[in-house]
Each structure stands twice: as C-alpha cells, then as structure tokens.
Amino acid sequence: MPNLGVPELLIIACVLVLLFGAKKLPEMARGVGKSLRIFKAETTKLREEDDEYSATQAAQPAPAQSQPQPAQPLAAAAPSPEEQARQLEEQAAKLRAQASANKNA
Length: 105
Known about the structure:
It is found in: Cell membrane. The protein has 105 residues and is mostly helical. The protein has helices spanning 6-20, 24-59, 81-104. The relative contact order is 0.04.
C-alpha cells in the first residue's frame, strides 16, 4: 500500500465529513476508541491467562506411566465433531418437542 501523504489524508477527511457530517464524526471516533480499548483489554487478559496456563503446565511434572495403557477400540473413542453436532441437534429437537408439548398441555 502506498504511503499516505497530507493531500491524501485531507481528501479522506473531506469525504468522511461529506458522508457522515461534522456532528457525527466525534461520536464515531469515540465509539471506535472505546471499542479499541475494550479489544486491547480483552487481548491482554487472554495473553495473561495463556501465560498463567503455560506456567502451571510447566510447573507440573509430567505423570510417569509405569504400565502402557491398552489401546481403546475405535467405538469407544471420542465422537467426531460432525457426530457431536448431530447429537446436539437431536437433543435440541427433543427439547423443542417437549417445550411445545408442555405449552400445548
């Protein structure tokens, strides 16, 4: 992207004033500033939580396994995301049916 100079910034500012009006621009700038502050605070919290999590994981020694675990059959393995989604959809349909039956009763 080319560097923006003073003439380009003035043109952009004029277009914004024409589109939104001089009264709306300060409100929009405040809104953008607030959302950027909120976004920055949330990303900082996530980084701190990630650092805490990695620090606790590094502090805990890995459990020593004295005996090898037997392999689990594929049927006992965790269901795929598609299977989980299908099960949740079935549960939601059952709950909707129960709610409509209770509403009609």
